[in-house]
Amino acid sequence: MRILKPFLVVFFLTVLNFGYSQKIYTEKDIQIIPKPNQLLIQPGAFEFSKSTKFVATTDFQKEISTALINKFEKAAGWRPEISATSPQSNFIQFKVDQTLNKEAYKLEVSAQSITITAKGNAGFIYGLESVRQLLPNVIESKNIITAAKWEIPNVVITDEPRFQWRGLMLDLSRHFFDKNYVIETIDRLAMLKMNVLHLHLVDDQGWRIEIKKYPKLTEVGAWRVDQENAAWNARLTTNPDEKGTYGGFLTQEELKEIVKYAATKNIEIIPEIEMPAHVSSAIASYPELACFNQRIGVPSGGLWPITDIYCAGKETTFEFLQNVIDEVIAIFPSKYIHIGGDEATKTNWDKCPLCQKRMKDNGLKNAHELQSYFVKRMEKYINSKGKKIIGWDEILEGGLAPAATVMSWRGTKGGTDAAEQGHDVIMTPESHCYFNFYQGPQNEEPIAFDGYTPLSKVYEFDPVVETMTPEQAKHVLGGQANLWAEYLPNTKESEYMIFPRLAALSEVLWSSKEKRNWNDFTSRLPSLLVRYDYLGINYAKSAYLVTAASTADMAQKQINITLKNEFPNPDIRYVLGDKTLAGNAVKYTTPIQVKETTIVKASLFQNEKLVGKIFTDTIIFHKGVAHKVKYLTPYNNNYKGDGPYTMNNSIRGSKNFHDGQWQAWLVNDMELVVDLEKQESVEQVIIGTLESQGSGVNFPTQIKVLISNDDITYKEVGKISRPYAVNVNSELKDFKINFGKQNARFIKVIATNLKKSPKGESSWLFVDEILVN
Fold first, then answer.
1. CB–CB of 201/337 below 8 Å?
2. How far apart are the C-alpha atoms of 484 and 168, rounded to whole Å?
3. Is the pTM of this model over 0.85?
4. ∠ CA 395-398-399 to the nearest 5 degrees?
5. 133-159: per-residue pLDDT in tens?
6. Which residues have a Cβ under 8 Å from the Cβ of 40 and sit 6 or more positions away?
7. How far apart are CA 531 and CA 519, in angstroms?
8. How far apart, in Å, are the Cα atoms of 111 and each of 91, 108, 133, 152?
């Protein structure tokens, strides 16, 4: 037997050990969001260490390298160096290729080196962001992780965005967010390769940008009377003599800092200065800007219709706006100025002699054409300063300004019409891009605007409408998410609404349509969410929630419950009664049939582990189920519920009062009779109600229960009185009226409507179930 020489033994052992310890990477390990357009995985990996060099030849390359080096210092405990020259191995370098498109990059990783090739800074940023997402997600940790292996797979990624406009709009007016939060948002946009941050700096409820020529805009317009304890649309009209204390603004120096920082992340800051409407904060500061010099306070909450708008007949209005624009342009080097242009109620223009004279002098037929004159005039001034305007799709009304770009929010029709006319378009339809809408079932979510845009719906969005011709499609610059802040009093709630929906939108706007796949995206999402955990981002877990849809079969006295989840082919498991969701859980495959009072608990499972919040519902079969209800005051035709058994079908309504389980009365009281069809022993009646003061829905001020055996003579057995109380939240409440056991066939319930809210608006009364026990 031949004996191997010692050095050969060592060699073979080394090869064997290397083969067993080396991780074999597959495409499942590449969890970059947005998904790269071309990916080639090769054997082996590059391992970062404290001796790794970042080869940077420009100040910008040094700056973006330092951002990743700082992460290594926090998470790994060592700090790679920046070098002006390339060592033989163990380095990352930047290479310029002028033939690439502006934001394109090529990332080549081998065991010896990493090379990011790009035309310039934008591509280098995005290449480095891909390196960041290839690293273990603990790279985001603020504490040292000793067990991590700091390697990335050997890959070749060739990548560039599908659309040039990939944006997010932050509303700073409805609730003010400071410089630090804006800068944090810029970092998070860059991580997802987004390149536009649109700042909504002006609206009725607050003027948020310092204008030195007009100091009252921030002395007065940036502050409103604090009514934060009331629902947004239930807040009272502000007295102009009452000093505002809630608000804030960004100084010009702060805004310049934001712009400068954003440039290091390839993010363009687009300022929005509203006109001619959504400007109550400006008129509160300078009443002469309005048609009738009316004194108003800065609104503390919802405002509709928006009638206090700039006077289009006064030359001083245009002088004011031109001076404002001059200061805005000095702060923002962006190509565009957004001028709003939406939701202007022009009733004052119709009455104003100066506006009427302007229309007559310029041959304008109506107020729509006067708004078009207004927009075109401001566009001409802005164009003279080397800038272009963007406006919401209302600027199409009365004729579109020649070089204007349209931001289409009322669906995609405005964008389609503008593209047909040869105008550039940014698609941001409410249906898919309004991040102030709910993203999960309302019972489980913080209060939001009354719409529904879950993660999966965002991912379905495409800025190019199928009916567009190739030439029209060229005018679609891209899309953006809009986060209106009526219901967002703090940064944590703002983050909750942005993430992870922004990740879905980033892939829509970056990745080629052919590369996008919901199943694939959701397989990569958990890795990003772990990064968000390390970064301290308060992202929503709504996509993990199990939701239920229930139907009632009153002939069989049976409830059928369907469970679902946003993820593809979800592993949903459930239990009935007081069991725990563990080994007893049943895999959901078909609707659950319930014929008696039962607790249903369900959750999403992944890899045999419970994930997300547990869904719980209690189905109560009470004595009134499936019995006749006689309505002594009819319910409103807009809220008929789910048919004749709505009040006694055991299915409860949710905070979403459009869910089909509510009956409602506008101003009128509710008065109805439940016929048990025979005498029963009863001792309790429960009335299920909803309050959402921002939507004009209020709890009843009084509830009375009466009983009878002949439906003629009634005896009152219980009453609850409840005075109106301010309530900022949407709330479900069961009012319980208990009384000693009594025999009765007929149960009469009278609920008294508030009738008028403190704001003077008609009040709704919503009821979903009358439970008789």
1. no
2. 11
3. yes
4. 75
5. 999 999 999 999 999 999 999 999 999
6. 155, 156, 157
7. 20
8. 10, 10, 18, 9
Q: Rounded mean pLDDT of the chain?
A: 94
DSSP 3-state assignment of 125?
helix
Residue 601 is predicted with a pLDDT of 95
Known catalytic residues are 203, 278, 343
Q: Which residues of 526-554 are buried (b: 16+ CB within 10 A; e: fewer)?
A: ebbbebbebbebebbebbbbbbbebebeb
Count of residues in the chain = 773
Tokens standing for 661?
């389980």
Q: What is the predicted pLDDT for the residue at 458?
A: 98
What is residue 7's predicted lDDT score, i.e. its pLDDT? 41
Q: Which residues of the chain have pLDDT under 70?
A: 1-22
Q: Measured in whole angstroms, how far is the alpha carbon of residue 146 from the centre of its chain?
A: 37
Strand partners, 767: 663, 689
Q: CB neighbours (10 Å) of residue 675?
A: 14
CA distance 193 to 555: 56
Per-residue 3-state assignment (H helix, E strand, C coil) for 287-354: HHHECCCCCCCCCCCCCCCCCCCECCCCHHHHHHHHHHHHHHHHHCCCCEEEEECCCCCCHHHHHCHH
Radius of gyration of the chain (CA): 31
d(CA 584, CA 580): 7
Give 363-388 pLDDT, tens digit per residue. 999 999 999 999 999 999 999 999 99
Residue 283 CB coordination number (10 Å): 23
If you search the block for the tokens 């953006």, which residue do you land on?
Answer: 480
pLDDT recorded at residue 1: 35
Burial zone of 12 (CB within 10 Å; 0-12 exposed, 13-18 middle, 19+ buried): exposed
The Cα 373–Cα 533 span in angstroms is: 50
In terms of phi and psi (left: phi > 0; alpha: psi -120 to 50; beta: otherwise), the region of 713 is beta
pLDDT score recorded for residue 23: 81
Q: Which two tokens stand for residue 686?
A: 């429960």
Task: Report the 3 state secondary structure along 250-295.
Answer: ECHHHHHHHHHHHHCCCCEEEEEEEECCCCHHHHHHCHHHECCCCC
205-219 pLDDT, tens digit each = 999 999 999 999 999
- 3-state DSSP of 422-463: CCCEEECCHHHHECCEECCCHHHCCCCEEEECCHHHHHHCCC
